[in-house]
Amino acid sequence: MNSFLIFLKKLNWFLILNVLLLTAIGLSSIFSSSLYDKDFSNFKKQILFLGIGFFLMILTAFFDYRFLKESSYFLIFLYLFSLLILAGLFFVKPIRGARAWYKIGGFSFDPMELLKLSLILILAKYFSSRHIESYRLFHIFVSGCYLLLPTVFTFLQTNLGSALVIIGIWLGILLLSGIRIRHFLLLLFLGIILISVSWKFLLKDYQKQRILAFLFPLDPWGINWNQNQAKIAIGSGGVFGKGFGKGVQAQYGFLPEAQTDFIFAAFCEEFGFLGGVLVLILFFILFWQLLRVALISQNNFARLFVLGWTISLAIQFFINVGMNLGILPIIGLPLPFVSYGGSSLIFNFLELGIVESIYFRL
Q: N or C: which end of the chain has fewer CB within 10 A?
């Protein structure tokens, strides 16, 4: 018992409490948007997901992360397994135009969350075992092979947001691990070519319409509806908001996906500009704490894992908030720890547990 109490005491509780505050904000918004139709099933599920995620975080923090650093076979198995279940989505029925979830009873499972975790781990393992001076195009090519199939699968499954996240993770880890400038410029050139090819052959018509509608907003009642309603919700909140449970846009269904993609707008409508600023502050504290753990980590594997997860969270944060504010096109990414969704919440707590395991063993 004493050793367990010592373990709990040594955890980074400032980081954990910050994440719990973000989750509490999400829960309050999910509950509030359920008041009109009295359907609190998502709220109850999210509490269940929080309980599971918190338990796994404590369990993972107690577990020695250095097993992951030393076990190449386990990481390869985890990556291949995540790739297999991601490929299995080709055989499921699309939900809202995308093959991104397995329906299991009243729950959904997003295999992309497992894929992101395995990709961060395997890239951290790959680059931590190599010196910066020895980086060649060969190493960039090999690391890119880990990215190739997941990216192709997610594009074909019309899950553009997840594809951008895993590409961002790879590029971010490359930059932070010491890629040479000329190699980065070459990747940038290849990226422009791939974007052009993707636009021509991979993106669906509705995805192209969302991007074009963002660049040329001429259809406020059609493809621009969701984003316009999000901006109305944020703007109508004013400085102090309309109050808990009084958000018209979310309550009466004008704001689509008020518990997932547009939960930030729903929260800002009820708690105003100050509520939105609070969410932004909590996220920047989260990023600051993660960067602090990365800087004081004792080995490159730990450092690159923490940085890789930070990059993943940051991409989702900036794209989601950008979508809500109308400064980025809608591509369907949740707000980490805030949006409704069991897969996202549980795996984020699991990854937080690995970070806590690293912090505990400093």
A: N
